[in-house]
Amino acid sequence: MKKRKIRAVVTGAGGFIGHHLVKFLKKKDYWVRGVDIKYPEFEKTAADEFLLLDLRFKRNALKATKNVDQVYNLASNMGGIGFIDSVKARLMNDNILIDTSMLEASRQNKVNRFFYPSSALVYPDFKEPEKNLRLKESYAYPALPDSEYGWEKLFAERLCADYYEDYGLETRVARFHNIYGPLGAYEGGREKSPAAICRKIALARDGDEIEVWGDGKQMRSYCYIDDCLQGIYRLTHSEIHQPVNIGSDHPVSINEFIDIVSEIAGKSIKKRYDLSKPQGVRSRNSDNTLVRKLLKWEPKIPLKIGIKKNYDWIKNEIDKKKKKKNL
Ligand SMILES: NC(=O)c1ccc[n+]([C@@H]2O[C@H](COP(=O)([O-])OP(=O)(O)OC[C@H]3O[C@@H](n4cnc5c(N)ncnc54)[C@H](O)[C@@H]3O)[C@@H](O)[C@H]2O)c1
Fold first, then answer.
1. Domain formed by 193-220+251-284+301-326, architecture
2. For residue 38, which atom of ligand 1 is closest to its CA?
3. Is this structure's pTM higher than 0.90?
4. What is the DSSP secondary-structure string of 118-183?
5. How do residues 30-71 score in pLDDT, each as one tens digit?
6. Which fold has domain 7-180+225-246?
């Protein structure tokens, strides 16, 4: 007898991680429904079915979660630090509506698993972080995120725990730390630091200067999309009910990141610091002790290899656009 395929819905399937996750689950022989308010921008979806639905409304969340075993709820109104700092009320409102609608609809439709992507932005803003600060999961409380986005993610994490405790809905929560890679936004305001830096350097000539938000000494860690997908999959199929970090524990400053991209691009790039621009917390890096122990997961793709793939893709997109303009 033919084995029944696992049926999953990926929300936010028109966006960066959601689009990649649809492809990943198809390779695992899932039946996949993609849902978003828009189609993927850079290539066709691999989903068996793609529904355009606004998931702030519960009737739409009910349609999205109908007849599926697993829910990967990646839909969210989000972007880089400039964006999330500029639309606080809209962002809080939209994301709370999406998350509450999706959890309640998943409960009503009796799904087996519900994956939720939280963020490293739930961690408190350690104003004077110790050198090499790594964020352990337990540091999230007492809570003091430095953005509304972080507070909303914390609220959604708690709601996932409540749905498990009160209704037995099998929720899984990952805290992503800067996921990057091809097929993500790289212009227009929603892009995050890795894509923005790659774009600026792709557009610059050898010897040019690029604008850097802050003093460039902020520490971050970056996790390549393929590692993140493995983490999502393993966590969803695990019995881990507490939030775990999915990120890299290899810290780099923004200055170092720019130097790596410049080297890949083969360009000498000068930095002009703009201290008036939003720059986030001084240091944010993942502590992977718990996730390594519980999930046997850790990122495998070295930063330089991941950045090269991301830079090459962004450069190629920019070149394609230029060519089209000149035709
Ligand atoms: N990329 C990262 O580094 C990162 C870090 C931490 C957490 N996350 C979380 O992971 C998830 C996916 O992130 P991403 O980088 O793929 O973002 P993305 O912006 O590329 O994708 C989000 C998608 O959600 C869709 N969406 C927005 N409002 C919607 C609505 N009302 N109904 C249906 N769809 C809607 C958007 O159209 C978009 O395609 C988000 O929850 C995000 O907060 C991402």
1. Alpha-Beta Complex (3.90)
2. 37
3. yes
4. EEGGGS---SSPPTT--B-GGGG-S---SSHHHHHHHHHHHHHHHHHHHH---EEEEEE--EE-TT
5. 999 999 999 999 999 999 999 999 999 999 999 999 999 999
6. Rossmann fold (3.40.50)
